[in-house]
């Protein structure tokens, strides 16, 4: 009985996701998409459904809302009669910011942050922060993280109590966060 309920929940979740326009990750994996452990994707992510077996995503990768990962470029079809297809690879410990597009043939190394709205048209090396259109490396990840650590203090770091995961999150928490942002310019939330 429990197995049947679990199966029904999964089917219902898949139906809701389809109605929202979300892709079925299990179906993409069945088609050949390779995804490591600790993979997270937010809403509106598109992983090239027609050539997903050309895409490899490593461990501990987060795709923020509306990220697109492509392995094919159909622009050549009109002129040549053929679509260009290349393998696209994302390493381990990678965060891809909202609205970014990763183009066919790109390899993103390990320990990388891709800034929101970036168009990744060339390889990004390990230990990098890359932003822009086209995305370019602006600093080493280790330097970015050290700069962030230097900005953190007891006045601008907030725990899980200050997230929507906390059912008691309310006006007092919002106010404290807004005031800290005004005072310090940046805050950090667990």
Write the layout of secondary structure elements.
Elements: H1 2-19, H2 25-31, E1 34-35, E2 40-41, E3 46-47, E4 55-57, E5 61-63, E6 68-69, E7 72-73, H3 77-80, E8 84-85, E9 88-90, E10 94-96, E11 101-102, E12 107-108, E13 112-114, E14 119-120, E15 128-132, E16 135-140, H4 141-151, E17 157-158, H5 171-184, E18 188-189
Parallel strand pairs: 1-4, 2-5, 3-6, 4-9, 5-10, 6-11, 9-12, 10-13, 11-14, 13-15, 17-18
Antiparallel strand pairs: 7-8, 15-16
Report on this structure.
The protein has two domains: 25-141, UDP N-Acetylglucosamine Acyltransferase, domain 1 (3 Solenoid); 152-190. The protein is α/β, with parallel strands linked by helices and 190 residues long. The relative contact order is 0.08. It is globular. Strand 17 (157-158), helix 5 (171-184) and strand 18 (188-189) form a beta-alpha-beta unit. The strands form five sheets. Strands 2-5-10-13-15-16 form a six-stranded mixed beta sheet. The protein is built from five helices and 18 strands. Helix content is 28%, strand content 25%. The mean pLDDT is 92.
Q: Which descriptor suits the 3D outline?
A: globular
CATH superfamily (homologous) name of the largest domain:
Hexapeptide repeat proteins
**Uncertain parts:** none
Give the CATH architecture of the largest domain: 3 Solenoid
Structural class: alpha/beta
Number of helices: 5
CATH class of the largest domain: Mainly Beta
DSSP strand content: 25-35%
Largest sheet: 6 strands, mixed
N-to-C CA distance: 38 Å
User: What helical percentage do the residues reach?
Assistant: 25-40%
Task: State Rg.
Answer: 20 Å
Biggest sheet strand order reads 2-5-10-13-15-16
Overall number of domains: 2
How many individual β-strands?
A: 18
CATH topology of the largest domain: UDP N-Acetylglucosamine Acyltransferase, domain 1
The pLDDT mean sits at 92
């Amino acid at each position: 009985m429990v197995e049947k309920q679990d199966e029904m929940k999964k089917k219902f979740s898949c139906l809701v996701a389809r109605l929202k326009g979300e892709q079925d990750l299990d179906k993409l994996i069945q088609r050949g998409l390779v995804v490591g452990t600790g993979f997270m994707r937010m809403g509106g992510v598109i992983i090239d459904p027609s050539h997903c077996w050309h895409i490899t995503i490593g461990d501990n990768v987060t795709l923020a809302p509306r990220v697109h990962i492509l392995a094919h470029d159909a622009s050549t079809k009109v002129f040549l009669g053929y679509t260009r297809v290349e393998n696209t690879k994302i390493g381990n410990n990678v965060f891809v910011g909202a609205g970014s597009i990763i183009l066919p043939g790109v390899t993103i190394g390990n320990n990388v942050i891709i800034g929101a709205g970036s168009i990744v048209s060339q390889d990004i090396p390990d230990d990098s922060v890359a932003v822009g259109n086209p995305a370019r490396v602006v600093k080493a990840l280790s330097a970015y993280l050290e700069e962030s650590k230097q900005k953190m203090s007891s006045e601008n770091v907030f725990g899980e109590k200050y997230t929507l995961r906390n059912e008691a999150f309310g006006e007092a928490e919002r106010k404290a966060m807004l005031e800290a942002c005004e005072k310090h310019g940046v805050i950090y939330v667990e």
